[in-house]
Every structure is written in C-alpha cells, then in structure tokens.
Amino acid sequence: MKKYFIFLFVAIGWVLSFFGCSEDKPSGETSALEENPKIVRQFLYDGMSLYYLWAPYMRDKKPPRLNIDPVDYFESLLYPIDRERGWSWITDNVEELLSDFEGESNNAFGFSPTLLWADGTMTNLIAVIKYVYPDTPANEAGLKRGDIITHINGEPITSSNYLTLFGSNTPVTFEVRDQFFENPRKISITPRKISTDPVLYTHVYHYPEQSKKIAYLFYTEFISNYNQSLYNAFAQFNREGVTDLIVD
User: Fold this and answer.
1) Range of weakest confidence among 26-30, 151-155, 216-220, 237-241
2) How do residues 141-189 score in pLDDT, each as one tens digit?
3) Which of 37, 119, 124, 174 could bond to 156 as cystine, CB 3.0-4.6 Å?
4) Does a structural domain hold residue 67?
5) Same domain assignment for residues 88 and 113
6) Are residues 159 and 236 in the same domain?
7) For the residues 75-99, what does the mean pLDDT come to?
8) Are residues 52 and 108 part of one domain?
9) Alpha-carbon gap, residue 74 to 82, rounded angstroms
10) Nearest in space to 109 (alpha carbons), one of 152, 75, 156
C-alpha cells in the first residue's frame, strides 16, 4: 500500500502533510484506499486548502466523483506558476524522502534546476542550473551555474519527463548550452548517492577604504545534519571581523 507525501509551497517555506495506511494487508483483503479511493483525493484537497500558498485557488478544485489517480489529481490542483516551476510535488518513496531531509540524496546528479517555459506555446521547458554541488556527477561532468538544459535523452523537456532532472535510476544524457544559449553540447551523467552540504560557498571581501569586511554566504537549504557547517562559517566570519553579511 502506497503512502503519499505532498510538499506544498507556502509563504514561510515547505509544509509536509501525508496520507498513510498499512503497508501490509492479509491476502485477499482490500485496503481502505482501494475500497474508497476518494479518501486520498479528499485528503489532498483538504491539505492544500489549508496550507497551500494559493489556497483560495482550491475553491473550484473540489474532489471529482470520478476515480482518478492521486498523482494526476494532485497535478490538477497546482497553481499554474507552481506547476511550471515544480515547487510543490508528491512522492510515495518515504526512504528517499527522509534521505533528502538528511542531505543524502540517492540516484542524484548534484545540481539544482529552475524550470522555465521554452517559448510562448508553454509546451516545452528549459532548465537553468542554479548551482552545482562539489564532488557530484554534475560537477564532474562540467556542469556549472547558469548552464541551460534543453533536452533529456534526446527529447525536449516537458511536463512528462522533467522529473528526471531531479534524479534517475539510470544514466541520462542532457543537451546543454551555456548561459548565453550558445555552445551546445551533450553530457552523459550517471547518478549516484551524494551528500549535499547546504553551505555551498563562503567568502569575505575586504574594503579597507570603507573600514568594511563583507561576508558572502551561499546557503542552499535548511538541513539540520549540516548545522555544524553553518556554525563554522559564522565562526570564520567572526574571526575575520565581518561588519556586513550577504546571504544568497
């Protein structure tokens, strides 16, 4: 029996809600979900009506009478810009989800993409790389911040295959251009388990003429397992007498 976990984009961050039922059942018996699939649809609707950034948008999205897949129903609920950017999502893989919370991602490439429509038809997408983690397949393949992915395994990026950007069980070939949409190239990447320390980059800029030391911190997300990295960064800033701080 699947457990569905939904992640909703809200004003203050990410909110986790879940629907759970027994993973095991006696042979020949049906689960509550199989007997009454509208339970999941109602759960999704109720959760998004309460916690979703665009909760008012749910007023016209009440659960249908038809029996449709929970993932399809969830996708139908998403606000257009959320569907475009991929901010909210649903998964039934709790083990991989908990690993992500701990900064350990399985079958990952090691980059973070932002999705944009390729043109006004809103059919195909492009993925702009926001950042690349060190010591990952993406870094080893030469991907860098600002690169643009246009195709996945020879196919344009669409709503049907964009999730491959976030991980895969098999090697993937990306068609990539630089930030000026030039120098097209193909890159094949084999995903693997990676560690994602959110303190991606730090630097202190010295401006003696202004009596200032400005610290720059590139912090990707809140992961408690790596709090020590954050403490170390601020300890370094303190030792260098930083007067101003930029957090990216």
Assistant:
1) 26-30
2) 999 999 999 999 999 998 888 889 988 889 999 999 999 999 999 999 9
3) 124
4) yes
5) no
6) no
7) 70
8) no
9) 12
10) 152
The count of structural domains within the chain is 3
In the listed set 40, 69, 92, which residue is the last one of a domain according to the structure? 92
| Domain extent for 187 | 104-195
Residue found by looking up tokens 């911190």 in the block: 217
Q: Which two tokens mark 157?
A: 């990026």
